[in-house]
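In this supplementary section we document a worked example of the pipeline. Step one takes a protein sequence of length 132 as its only input; no multiple sequence alignment statistics are reported here. Step two produces a three-dimensional model, which step three serialises into structure tokens for compact storage. The input and output of this example are shown verbatim.
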Amino acid sequence: MLQKTILLLTLLFVMTGCPGDDVDFPYYIKLSNQSGEAVFYHKLGAVQDVYSSGFTASPMRSITSGMSTDTGFRDTEISGEKSLYLLLYKKSTLDNYTWEEIQQQNLHDARYKFSTIEELQSINFEIIYDGN
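The serialised model returned by step three reads:
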């Protein structure tokens, strides 16, 4: 009986997935990569200054050239004096500099700052990155 219970609980866990996998966000930004190479990005919300936010990990999210992805956020990430930032790094930038150099010199290939939902609405919640 115990084995059947364990099997049932295991199947239930596998079928429902891990907690937090399916997070619903009220807003999404579509990021399209037209740069000719892979692009990695950081999304930082509810920060006053992206450079003093203290993010230490190198960007793990990536977009293959010619592809797009949706990244979700909440309106609390854009409130008051806090803004939503997207920092993009070409693969070649990450290959040519260490993460420490990138942080120390504030290197990035593109930086987008949104302080209001209306700013995102004005671009139809879409960023097309062409590498320039």
